[in-house]
Write a structure and sequence with these properties.
With 196 residues, the protein is mainly β. It has one helix and 24 strands. Helix content is 3%, strand content 30%.
């Protein structure tokens, strides 16, 4: 850690933690041994980061989120308030798993809404958006808009986070997309460039 990291006095950071410069850890949070947190992250009030969790750069974790061992957040992931992660599909108090946890990967720039639940063992694709209260129990495609219990895809979202219209065009930033093999892909700009 450097002196360019802000840790609120009520928070606890265990030995063996790596935190990148520009990161801020707010009230009543706990970062456990072996956790790695990138640069310019924001961890809200009452956030728990378990042992050996990896968090990329520019990640925002809102209040009351616990990120358990086996979970990885890539760069610029957004976790809404009280977002829930799991790491054990068959938990028992009497029979602990001893660090044999399911892996969960949240790809870069994905958004997880308030009170959403990410069941362990899945990948949430880049730029995906999981609606508030949704329960993700399967892998999520990049750019997919997921909602409901269990979460189902109800649309697509742009890199900028806006929901795309039926023509797969973003009215906010002007990007356009196509569907190829069931996945959203940026529409080629080659024709526009050559026409100028």
């Amino acid at each position: 850690m450097t002196d360019k990291v802000y840790i609120h006095p009520t928070s606890i950071v265990d030995e063996g933690v790596e935190i990148g410069e520009g990161t801020k850890v707010w009230h009543f949070s706990h970062i456990q041994s072996g956790a790695k947190i990138g640069k310019n992250c924001s961890l809200g009030q009452n956030v728990n980061i378990s042992n050996h969790v990896i968090i990329g750069n520019g990640v925002k974790i809102q209040n009351n989120v616990s990120i358990y061992e086996g979970v990885e957040l890539e760069d610029y992931v957004f976790c809404g308030p009280s977002c829930v992660f799991t790491n054990d599909l068959t938990p028992r108090a009497r029979y602990p798993k001893n660090h044999k946890y399911e892996k969960t990967l949240i790809k870069h720039e994905a958004t997880l809404g308030a009170n959403s639940t990410i069941v362990c063992g899945h990948v949430v694709g880049e730029y995906a958006m999981v609606a508030a209260g949704a329960v993700v129990s399967k892998n999520v495609k990049p750019h997919a808009l997921m909602a409901g219990v269990p979460a189902k895809q109800i649309g697509w979202v742009c890199n900028c986070g806006q929901v795309l219209n039926k023509e797969l065009f973003c009215r906010d930033c002007g990007r356009s997309y196509i569907i190829k093999d069931g996945y959203l892909m940026a529409h080629s700009k080659l024709q526009e460039v050559s026409a100028e």
